[in-house]
Design brief:
This protein is α/β, with parallel strands linked by helices. The protein has eleven helices and 13 strands. The longest helix is centred in the C-terminal third of the chain and has 22 residues. Bound molecules: oxa(dethia)-CoA.
């Protein structure tokens, strides 16, 4: 249970590229089919950022909307955290680029990397800072352009991913509302299951790493799938129980949007109905750190989340990492 000043989401925003890459488009690029992609993943299309665009462009667009939704200006921000595995640069941090572009003159800024769990890790880092009174307003962004590190000759991965950004502003909320509990975990022994091998200190960029596609995502899909199905329901249950509640109290679950079969398996094990689980994987594919805040923003703007509703966010990703949090809207 999060102690101290009650902290919650006071604004949301998201941004996706205009360009749509459909399953039919992918059929022309690799040996795949619309039928295979739809039945194995639930994905029908994904968005791809235009040439010259970068993660900070979408993070910025999402941030501007989240600030407007919260009714605050950038100079009120104390901290900006960007969760991403596709930063504009290795350094400086994408969060610092945003600090400058937004005019967040008072804000500290840093990036955080926890794969597709990155947004939940960032929220979990930010929330206690507000609860303790250290900071009052924090901008948390999940943004990734996975298209930039996807090998479009590898059918095992290229059908899955899309580009997007989602943002929230965290701040003080009335007593009884906001983030009730946080549950995080990791298992680094699974690091090889989902990895970008080159470009870091272990394998700096070379003509060989480029020729061998080592700057692209490599994934053991089957093992990640098994891990995800194993972890999602317990993770969600633990977050809810930590808040002193039970699954019967949950109004809406927003899971990481990776694969409809993973989401359905978790939903069935948790005893939730289809209406209780927000799904948009069909439209955007797996957008990594952006997946949960993008879904959250869509759910909120479509009227799916009412005041007082118990919302649970949960996700998993490279690392391996996982996280969940229970929020009273
Ligand atoms: O955010 C976290 C990131 N990752 C994930 O969440 C991914 C989790 N994993 C998955 O979603 C699924 O494992 C995949 C969608 C990646 C794959 O589905 P699957 O049911 O586990 O398929 P599979 O890997 O067992 O492959 C089944 C068959 C294989 O052919 P053979 O060996 O049975 O002849 C693959 O080569 O499907 C083949 N295959 C494809 N066929 C058509 C793999 N990718 C494709 C494709 N189109 N795109």
């Amino acid at each position: 249970m999060l102690q101290g000043i009650p902290v919650g989401i006071i604004g949301t925003g998201s941004a996706v590229p205009e360009l749509i890459l459909t399953n039919a488009d992918l059929e022309k690029m690799v040996d795949t089919s619309d039928e295979w992609i739809k039945t194995r993943t639930g994905i029908q299309q994904r968005r791809i950022a235009g040439e010259g665009q970068s993660t900070s462009d979408y993070a910025y667009m999402a941030a501007v909307k989240a600030l407007a939704d919260a009714g605050i200006t950038a100079d009120e921000l104390d901290l900006i955290i960007v969760a991403t595995v596709t930063p504009d640069y290795q350094f400086p941090a994408t969060a610092c680029l945003l600090q400058n572009r937004l005019g967040a003159t008072r804000a500290a800024a840093f990036d955080l990397s926890a794969g597709c769990s990155g947004f939940l890790y960032a929220v979990s880092t930010a929330a206690p800072m507000i609860a303790s009174g250290l900071y009052r307003k924090i901008l948390v962004i999940g943004a990734d352009l996975l298209s930039r590190i996807t090998n479009y000759q590898d059918r095992n991965t290229c059908v899955l991913f899309g580009d997007a950004a989602g943002a929230v502003v965290l701040g003080e909320v009335p007593q009884g509302k906001g983030i009730l509990s946080i549950q995080l975990g990791s298992d680094g022994s699974g690091g090889e299951l989902l990895i970008q091998r080159a470009g870091g200190s272990k394998a700096p960029a070379s003509t060989q790493t480029v020729a061998e596609h080592e700057h692209s995502i490599v994934m053991n899909g089957k093992e990640v799938f098994k891990f995800a199905v194993r972890i999602m329901d317990n993770l969600t249950r633990e977050a809810v129980e930590k808040a002193g509640l039970s699954m019967a109290d949950v109004d809406c679950l927003i899971p990481h949007q990776a694969n409809i079969r993973i989401i359905d398996a978790a939903r069935e094990r948790l005893g939730l109905t289809e209406e209780q689980v927000f799904v948009n994987v069909q439209n955007y594919g797996n957008t990594s750190s952006a997946s949960i805040p993008l879904a959250l923003d869509e759910a909120k703007r479509s009227g799916r989340l009412g005041s007082g509703d118990l919302l649970v966010l949960c996700g998993f990703g490279a690392g391996l990492t996982w996280g969940a949090c229970a929020i009273r809207m």
